[in-house]
Structures are given as structure tokens and as C-alpha cells.
């Protein structure tokens, strides 16, 4: 049977392993934030416009608009993007407007930094509006760190009862 001292010792070792893994995850991801964009028709504008909004991004991303019909078109002259610092003064809200859109077309608002890429699609017809969003993690270093942490945790933590018995 393990003594109280051994149980305390291996409990502390387990906590240290978990904290070390958490630190590895933080270092792997760095300070970052990303969120799904929401694309809507902006009825306040004088012409047909779309508004793409994502509440939290850091570091500052790039925003690119694309069209299903006008593939390869550059929409930078028809769009305006702003980045507003959130109340915590770390992340930023991304707001991008696309002007002069046409009905019966699907538009995509792609927000991307070195950590993630999020896309919001909207199809506007005379009778309906369809939306779809998806998010993709791009930063492979963070994925490797996260995987390493979970492997270490799953291997070492189950061994701690055996180590306590010696």
C-alpha cells in the first residue's frame, strides 16, 4: 500500500504534468482568437450590399470576398473592411461590407490569419436567403503541441497508481 507521502508526491507530479501540457498548448497556439463570420444582407445601404461580421479575431486577419458566378474577380474596390478593438483590448471585431451585389449569386466572405480560416457564404435570390459557415484551423504547430500534450497525459497519468504502489 502506498504511503500518504507517496500519494501526495504523485498527485503533485500529475498536476505538474497537466500544467506543463497546458503551457505547451498556450505556447503552441500563442495568443490567438478566431470566430465564425455571419453574412447578412444590409438593408440600410443605398444599393444591394452584404455585411460580413465576426466578433473575435487576433492577430488581425485579411478579408477576401469571392463570388460563385464571378470566379477570380477582385472585389477589393467594391468592399470596405474595418477592425474594431473589443472591450478587452485584445481581440478585434471584423466588419466587412461588399457593395453592388447581384441577386441570384452566392458570395463568400473569407477571413483568414495564420491560425485559422473562416468562411461565410450567402446566396440571395428573389425569394430566399441561404447561409453557410465553416472554420478551418491552419496552424499545424499548435495541432502538434495539442496532440503531444494529450499523448503525454494519456500515457503518464494512468501510470501514476502503479508508481504510487512502489
TrEMBL record:
Gene3D superfamilies for the chain: Immunoglobulins
Main localization category: membrane
Family matches, as InterPro entries: BTN3A2-like_Ig-C, Ig-like_dom, Ig-like_dom_sf, Ig-like_fold
Record bears the keyword Protein biosynthesis: no
Classification via Pfam families: C2-set_3
GO cellular component labels: membrane
Subcellular location, record wording: Membrane
Keyword Magnesium: no
Segments forming domain Ig-like: 37-125
Membrane-spanning ranges: 7-34
Highest taxon in the source lineage: Eukaryota
Alphabetically ordered keywords of this record: Immunoglobulin domain, Membrane, Transmembrane, Transmembrane helix
SUPFAM superfamilies: Immunoglobulin
Protein name in UniProt: V-set domain containing T cell activation inhibitor 1
Amino acid at each position: 500500500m502506498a504511503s500518504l507521502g507517496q500519494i501526495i508526491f504523485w498527485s503533485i507530479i500529475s498536476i505538474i504534468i497537466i500544467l506543463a501540457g497546458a503551457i505547451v498548448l498556450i505556447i503552441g497556439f500563442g495568443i490567438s482568437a478566431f470566430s465564425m463570420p455571419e453574412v447578412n444582407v444590409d438593408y440600410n445601404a443605398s444599393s444591394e450590399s452584404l455585411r460580413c461580421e465576426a466578433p473575435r479575431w487576433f492577430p488581425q486577419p485579411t478579408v477576401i470576398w469571392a463570388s460563385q458566378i464571378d470566379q477570380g474577380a477582385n472585389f477589393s474596390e467594391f468592399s470596405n473592411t474595418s477592425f474594431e478593438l473589443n472591450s478587452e483590448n485584445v481581440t478585434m471585431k471584423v466588419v466587412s461590407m461588399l457593395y453592388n451585389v447581384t441577386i441570384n449569386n452566392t458570395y463568400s466572405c473569407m477571413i483568414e490569419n495564420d491560425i485559422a480560416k473562416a468562411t461565410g457564404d450567402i446566396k440571395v435570390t428573389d425569394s430566399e436567403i441561404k447561409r453557410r459557415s465553416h472554420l478551418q484551423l491552419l496552424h499545424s504547430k499548435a495541432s502538434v503541441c495539442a496532440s503531444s500534450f494529450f499523448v503525454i497525459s494519456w500515457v503518464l497519468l494512468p501510470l501514476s497508481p502503479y508508481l504510487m504502489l512502489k
